[in-house]
Amino acid sequence: MARTTNDEVKKIIDTGLTAEEVNPFLNAADILVTDLLSDEGYGSDLLKEIVKWLAAHFVAIRDPRVAKEKFGDADATFQGKTGLGLQHTSYGQQVMILEHHGIFAQVSSAKVSASLKVITP
Predict the structure, then answer these.
(1) Is residue 115 part of a domain?
(2) Best label site of 3, 7, 28, 58, fewest CB within 10 Å?
(3) pTM above 0.70, yes or no
């Protein structure tokens, strides 16, 4: 059972998604928080807040927030840049503040690398 509800997530992020459409983001956030933080000594209230803000972060990635609008000749700039992990949204930044042991900050900043070896006959 999730630590929080879709409606509680929707209270902190303005989205056109229905509560049902928020559910996958909430489930992902809850699973991730459980896996990474369940043995870290956080209280249930703080874990609930972390799940809520992480779910909002995932929603904001799906539906980017407008950072700047212009109406004459319609122009819009959206928040975030790819590759920034939790820094990508203000919701993710809040997760890193709430999760003060730094586990999410480490996961968010982890560099993923791959190599390719070509074998020729």
Answers:
(1) no
(2) 7
(3) yes
